[in-house]
Amino acid sequence: MAHRVDNEYDYLFKIVLIGDSGVGKSNILSRFTRNEFCLESKSTIGVEFATRTLQVEGKTIKAQIWDTAGQERYRAITSAYYRGAVGALLVYDITKKLSFENINRWLSELRNHADSNIVIMMVGNKSDLNHLRSVQEEEGQALAEKEGLSFLETSALEALNVEKAFQTILSDIHQIISKKALAAQEAAGSGPPTQGTTINVADSSGNMKKGCCST
Amino acid sequence: MLRRHKGRESASSSDSTFYQLRPDCAHNVPDTKFKIKIGKTLSVRKWHAAFTHHGSLHIASVLNRIQSGGVHPAIRGEVWEFLLGCFDPDSTFDDRDHIRQARRIQYARWKEQCKHMDPHVGSGKIITAPIITEDGVPIKDPLVLLEAATPDQQASLISTKNGDEADHRLTDKQTIEWKLTLHQIGLDVLRTDRSMVFYEKKENLSKLWDILAVYAWIDKEVGYCQGMSDLCSPMIVLLNDEADAFWCFERLMRRLAREFQMHTAIRWG
């Protein structure tokens, strides 16, 4: 059997984790990429990222997950953070009402800085803390429907639905890309994209912000 | 914690003897590379021998050791006060006593100012949810997760609260800015060096919160930025007195402040 090297993949998808400080973004990342959870994890400084290669709908997808500090002032680096992202996991904490109320702020942040075609999934984390719950699952579901987002409740601690959340968003992205590739193929009459190329969900004429900080 | 181990100075003891880890976390923390090496590590005796009768420090004689073998944990606090520039090595014992007293008074004054703006400062409590909206409207019953206060302090907290008509909206921009950072400090304090036994003591957590809250008030350009709690934590571990720890942190921030100012962060993007 041939040795599969790390850079052998069909697609590389950049996904960003966003949400208020302390909702569990970094633990979602470590659960998904290393199957680890740390109760003593530190606050995130600046930006971190990790990757994991997995199979989605028969394709090998390298998911590159970006994680950032939730503090307001780190918003200054967002234009760099969102650049090239094809998916966003918008995380709140089911025990912190405010982190759920702030979902709208994060959505407008995405609308202002990310590509308009970005696939967004809303995630209510810490479902293991059901006794401290202050956001009902139905509320999350309703908001997700209203905003046209997919939705799941997760527990990074119990490894519940984290895998599923990423699988869902990755396959959503993959489907969009397949459709695009097909459309492009029909239009140009050319073959499918070569293996290992990064494909941006964005239209080439997309409305991605240009330049530094877009002030 | 450092005191307890003072005098113990064997060739084999390492940092973990001094900075105890919670047993349930030990496996998550990488082993320290530091070992006390006789003849290399700056020992308690060598350190004291580097001072003249009046107290001026011959710093050149200790720097080599510090660089090659590190500092014995029992004296790290005092050594760092010099390394961070809290004191001039040429100063005398008396000079330093005066400076220290003056600084402690200054810190107490600032802390009092902060306490006046928000009674949680110095109360032993830590705020982890916003106490104010961005428009300056106070939020009732913020989530105060940690209660480390003694009954005395609790009483004073309640009386301050009652005396203060918190209902009207704040208009001072600086005060609003400061209040908006308090819960972020709390969220991070609860995530700082949690594998250390040291932070099982709630007083130490509130010390960290208080120092960062006061710092955010006196350095309005930097305020509080995620990451600062990790820098401040060693100062609290090494220096028993809260004010002394504050001044070490303040000195450290003088060196690092550029990295924390908003324009630096923006340059990134």
Index terms:
heterodimer, A: 215 residues, alpha/beta, Rossmann fold, 6 strands, 32% helix, B: 269 residues, Helicase, Ruva Protein, domain 3, 2 domains, 11 helices, globular, disordered N terminus, disordered C terminus
Q: How would you characterize the overall build of this protein?
A:
The complex is a heterodimer of chains A (215) and B (269). Chain A has helices at 25-34, 78-82, 97-101, 103-113, 137-147, 162-188, and strands spanning 11-19, 47-56, 59-68, 87-93, 119-125, 150-153. In chain A, 32% of the residues lie in helices and 22% in strands. Chain A is built from six helices and six strands, in the order E-H-E-E-H-E-H-H-E-H-E-H. In chain A, helix 5 links the parallel strand 5 (119-125) and strand 6. Chain A is globular and about 55 Å long. Chain A has a six-stranded mixed sheet with strand order 2-3-1-4-5-6, with helices on both faces. Chain B is mainly alpha-helical and 269 residues long. Chain B has two domains: 2-93, no CATH class; 101-162 and 169-268, Orthogonal Bundle (Helicase, Ruva Protein, domain 3). Chain B is 51% helix and 3% strand. Chain B is built from eleven helices and two strands. Chain B has helices at residues 15-18, 44-49, 59-69, 76-83, 93-117, 151-163, 173-189, 202-218, 228-238, 242-260, 262-268; strands at 125-127, 144-147. The longest helix of chain B has 25 residues, at 93-117. Residues 1-12, 153-167 and 265-269 of chain B have low confidence and may be disordered. Classes of the chains: A alpha/beta (215), B mainly alpha (269). The A-B interface holds A 21-22, 38-46, 69, 71-74, 76-80, 96, 98, 212-213 and B 25, 28, 128-130, 180, 184, 187-188, 191-192, 194-195, 223, 225-227, 229-230, 262, 265-266, 268-269.
